[in-house]
Structure formats: structure tokens, C-alpha cells
Amino acid sequence: MLEVLRVCLLNGFNTRSVTSIVVASGVATATAATHGYTSTYGKLLLIEGSGEALLNGRKQPLSVTTNTFTYAAPGVADGTYTGTITAKRAPLGWAEALTGTHKAIFQRTAPEANTQVLRVEDSDALYTRLVMAESASDVDTLTDPAPTTAQLSGGAYLYKGQNNTTPKRWAIVGNHRFIYLFTPTGNTAQNSEADQLLLCFGDGVNYFPGDSHFCILCAGTTTTHTTNGPKIAQSSAMGANWGLSQYGSVVSRSRSGADKSGIFDTQSVFQQRVGLVTSITLPQAIWVIGKPVFLVDDYATKEIRGE
Prior knowledge:
By secondary structure, the protein is mainly beta. It has two helices and 26 strands. It has two domains: about 10-90, Ubiquitin-activating enzyme E1, FCCH domain (Elongation Factor Tu (Ef-tu), domain 3, Beta Barrel); about 95-305, no CATH class. The chain has helices at about 1-10, 225-230; strands at about 15-20, 20-25, 25-30, 45-50, 55-60, 65, 70, 80, 85-90, 95-100, 105-110, 115-120, 125-135, 135-140, 140-145, 155-160, 170-175, 180-185, 195-205, 215-220, 230-235, 240-245, 250, 275, 295, 305. The longest helix is centred in the first third of the chain and has 10 residues, at about 1-10. The chain is globular, with a radius of gyration of 21 Å. The two termini are about 25 Å apart. The relative contact order is 0.11.
């Protein structure tokens, strides 16, 4: 799991050599043999190595063929550009602040992101353990962790799939401040997204100006991943449509950051389904996460803190 996070958050993947870039009327056509990229919105590429700086950077493919892809190149003169140019699926731009044996501390680099970090321990064959914290001085020393050791020693759980050679279906969706990571529940490769498990970590949309502690970790509370982890559900109760079913842990600091008890009640607040779709039947390979999902700071008062 650590390597999946590293390639998606830090390093990118599927690097290809670009033999040339031809610009015409503000559109760049890059040639990269059997690149495997798509023009799906949000699946950005990182272009590096061109002598023309405007051709480098994170780019949204406009169209693709087997050996070429296009992207917008405003301000670049028409012509052919060569060099030691590469393309790859762009990472989300996070950083690995600290590293240990089967452990890492990930943080967001965006200036507007809150400062909380995500500790990932990947020493178990089946489960990844997760803790967020205000800061970390080393990979094992955390300031104001959530969940706390008393609440859930070792951190929240994310099931990775059976420890075998069968390919597993997974996906990461995210940006510079928030990620969703989907993993399988079953023992074999899944042909559908039903019952995919979910990790989410990052900043919510807070309703209180200056709330610098509104960072959320959503993962499982026990190794019983089918009932105690957030997941994508498909059931007759949902009209055979897709929705997000939250059964597990959702934690965050209090607004002041000082109240150690200011952590979301991890088992009673979010046991209802959210993101329910009732009017259409969606094709497989599409995940629907309904918005907004309102988060409360205290289950008794139900004060809405954000979404």
C-alpha cells in the first residue's frame, strides 16, 4: 500500500518518452509510443524536459490515439519541439515528510492546506494502519494524533485484500488537499465496484472561518472490514443503485485543536448511508459520492462544522 500511495501522491507513474511535440494553433500534439493514457477529465499528465517551458507541467489531455495525445498550449509558437521529453501520470503533489521501516508520514504541500499529516503503517499483510496528527517529529512520534492510542491503538484500519497473487481492483481519486482510496473487500479480483472499501483523508469544507483543524480521516475501526469500514455499497435497500455507506471511523480535531476529546464519535455518528442515488441506475466503473456529507463536531449538540 505504501508504494501505491507513493506513486499516486509523490512520484507519478507510467512514464513514457516523448519523441516530439508539434504545436499548431495553440494545441500541442505529443508523440509517445503506446502510451496508454486517456483523455478522461482529471487524469492529468506531467510533461517534463521540453526546452519550451510552456509545454512542461501538469496538462489535461484533450484527445488520445495509440501513439499520440494532445493538450492545450496557449502562447506557444507553432512548430516542432524535441529534446529529452517525458510524460507520466501526474502525482497529486503531496510530500513524504518522514520515512521508517514499512511506515511513512505524508503531508500536503499546498499552502492553503491544513497542516495535519497522515501516518501510514504497512507492516501487516492484510491491513494498513492509519493515524492523522497535527504534526510529527519522527515516524513514531505524533503530536495530537487521531484516533488516539486509547481510542484505537495502532490507528484505523484499511483492508488491502487477500495476501495472494490475484490482481486487486483499487483506485485513488484526489487532489492537493484530499484523497479517496478504494480497495477490494473480497478474496479475488472484483469485476464491479460494489462493496469497495474506502479511505479518505484531507481537509473538509469548514463553516467556521479560521478553523485550521478541520481535517478528516475516514477508515475502519476493526479488522472486521465488511462491517466496520466505510465502503461503497450496492443493495436492494438502495434501489440497486450506488451510494457511499459509512460504517466506520470518522475522526477530526476540535476547532480549538486543544481539546483532546474533540474527536468525532467514530461509531455512532455516521452509521447511516450517505450519497444515496435513487432515481437512476449507474453503469459499473462509476463511483458516486454524494455531496454534501455534513459533519458534526458533537453528536449530542449536532452542531454542523462543515462538509
